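Let us work through a complete example step by step.
Step 1: write down the sequence.
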Amino acid sequence: MKPRDARPTLVVLGAAGDLAARLLLPGLAGLVSRRHLAINLIGSDRAGWDDDRWRARVRQAFSGGAEPSPAIEAIIGATRFVQADVTAPDDLDRLLRACSAKRLILYFALPPAVTEQACRALTGRTLPADTRLVLEKPFGSDAESAERLNRVLTRLVPEDQIYRVDHYLGLSTVLNIFGLRYTNRVLESVLDSTHVASVDILLHESLTLEGRAGYYDRAGALIDMLQSHALHVLSLLAMEPPSTITALDVRDGAAAVLRATRVWHNDPVGSSRRARYTAGTTNGRAVPSYVDEDGVDPDRGTETFAEMVVEVNNWRWAGVPFRLRTGKALARLDKRVVITFKQPKWVPEGLHGFERPDRLHIGLDPEVLRLDFNINGIGDPSTVERVGMGVDLEPGDLPAYGQVLAGVLDGDPTLSVRGDQAVQTWRIVEPVVRAWREDAVPMQEYKAGSDGPTTA
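Step 2: predict the structure and record it as tokens.
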């Protein structure tokens, strides 16, 4: 009997798709280059590719046209492609037979519905003891389906071998939230409802649909960005200081925040906005209206801009509005957290020009940290002027997907989403989803290349 390979085998399901080429494979290349990893790579898809075509895709993603390193070249030369429909039991068995590894990693770079079918098809099959399952968002289509999928997955492998990945949790600046909060008493002491007026989590994109209609037109901005990314960033930002930064403590803290979170005043109509872009210019190019993009069904009423306000009902944050906002085809890329502090209780008479509150900006992309505050004006101490102190944050040594894959390969689920967290994020947005489906919240419009709808 042929011995199993001691090296981990990463099987990319959906290898012919956009996600694999644009994010997953470049992230893996960054990880291999920096960590000098030895890994087996197998691509699988229903598409009728062969080894040569798959290797060409891997080479392009790994090297970008540059001369690959020996470690990269070894992976490219050995990688294989297995044509398979992973929802079909016979195809799935054939794919598993091609994986002679003690450490098997199945990466589902597939639409959520196909991922769920594939996981059900895996039921009853014998997997290596250390098999790890990696799933992209959105996880399920609502709270009920997420719970069902959790039950399927935990029949296959233990929870700590399931990685529901969110590459936003691999951004180095999101990880910097821990250092910023927990190692600076001057900040941690004021991050509560006594001092904070509001928190904004902004995930603005200048990109348009970029050929992703097959997925995006069914998901929309609310599910694509707020239900997953924004709420998970919120959970790390608002959690209580954990005893350690290990998986158990961090995910317990994040889950506790999500359980306490709900739509502001339980009013999904008054606390949410939706819109979609019309024709305009962004990134120096003319773009059509969203409804005229290839693959879009205008009758679906899919939004490209979503905003919702939530509250975290616990001792620290009660009464503080958390605004989550995202949009496509906006004027600029701007992904950041903005913490707005309350005004001073009293300002001495004779100080003029005092209007704006202090604000802390934590930039996710671009990666910056800035504090806006007030000082006495130059030449006239009675006039207050606005100043900002900022620093550019060094990006991590790995791209976001490289950090995600590092956690999977290291067996560290700290920054992956636990099953109960995935259910809670659906529970939070479901009132808004229902209100939008019932057209209780009107669909607004904004011109591509603008700052979004004026009422947002």
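Step 3: interpret the result. The chain has two domains: 9-136, 170-397+418-447.
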